[in-house]
Specification:
Strand content: under 5%
Largest sheet: none
Number of helices: 14
Number of strands: 0
Distance between the termini: 51 Å
Length: about 290
């Protein structure tokens, strides 16, 4: 049996769905549930919700590669489709299967998760097809999708009809910081993708406003995210490990700001590392009390 062929096939599939992002989505759902309802969590609804978010995100990532084929030939020729490791039709079929699996799994949790999963799947499809033509709206869509992962975890953990009074400040801080930091990261990503995007006449912020202005706008969003992340330090909620949160969040904030001194390709990786650390901070601040 040729195990190298299976390994190459697996590497190709993982390259399409981007497992790093899927893990972030999985952890994000658990974090959203923890911050909204607190421990202990019901195991099966949260597990199903985390898997749903990961599957739908993986589907969206694969579909994005399907539509970004032309620009990826210039920006990222090593990606699975332009490198010839998988066909566009196979990529499309895999994306459809993942979308269907994710939406189907969301139905087993509650009506709220089904609505959010379906809405997000539709938004991912629209984004994948039209992202290069939507200008700034594309960045807003992705930022909403990332922030909605935590909302998804919250509604999956519901034991009663939701109300505004049930929302704690730490949860709203998480939603705000995730939206703002993702806006920054998406703009930086657009700067990195400019060479290929210009070839296919894309309509992105760096192309319209220039790379210098785009980076300045990205920094403003990241600075706002960093500022928002400090709010719980001055107004800590009950049942909250202030020391753990401060250590993790301040480390993440330093990485976020430091990323703007580096090339876009390195900056993105640094931002993702910061997101992992900040998620650890939010989760640990509730668990380690």
């Amino acid at each position: 049996m040729d195990f190298s062929a299976y390994r190459q096939w697996l590497d190709t599939l993982l390259g399409l769905v981007r497992p790093r992002n899927m893990i972030l989505a999985f952890v994000g759902v658990v974090t959203g549930a923890l911050l909204y309802t607190g421990p202990p969590l019901e195991f099966w609804p949260i597990l199903c919700a985390a898997l749903t978010a990961s599957l739908i995100l993986g589907a969206g990532n694969a579909l994005n590669d399907y539509f970004d084929f032309e620009s990826d030939k210039i920006n990222k020729p090593e990606r699975p489709i332009p490198s010839g490791r998988i066909s566009r039709s196979d990529t499309l079929m895999m994306s459809i299967v993942l979308f269907m699996a994710g939406i189907g799994l969301s139905k087993a949790i509650n009506d709220y998760t089904l609505v959010i999963a379906t809405l997000n799947a539709l938004m991912l499809i629209i984004y994948a097809r039209y992202s290069k033509k939507l200008f700034f709206l594309a960045n807003i869509v992705v930022s909403y999708l990332v922030a909605s992962i935590f909302l998804f975890g919250a509604v999956a953990s519901l034991k009663q009809t939701p109300s505004l009074g049930m929302i704690n400040p730490l949860f709203t801080t998480l939603i705000a910081t995730s939206f703002l930091s993702t806006m920054a990261r998406e703009i930086v990503k657009d700067v990195e993708d400019m060479p290929g995007d210009e070839k296919i006449y894309s309509n992105t912020l760096p192309i319209k406003a220039g790379t210098k202005r785009a980076r300045e706008i990205a920094f403003l969003f990241m600075f706002a995210a960093v500022a928002a992340s400090l709010y719980p330090l001055f107004n800590p909620p009950t049942g909250f490990n202030l020391l753990f949160y401060a250590a993790m969040i301040l480390t993440a904030d330093i990485l976020f700001l430091l990323s703007f001194t580096m090339h876009e390709s390195i900056a993105q990786r640094l931002m993702v590392a910061g997101m992992f650390i900040s998620l650890t901070g939010y989760t640990g601040s509730i668990l380690f009390t």
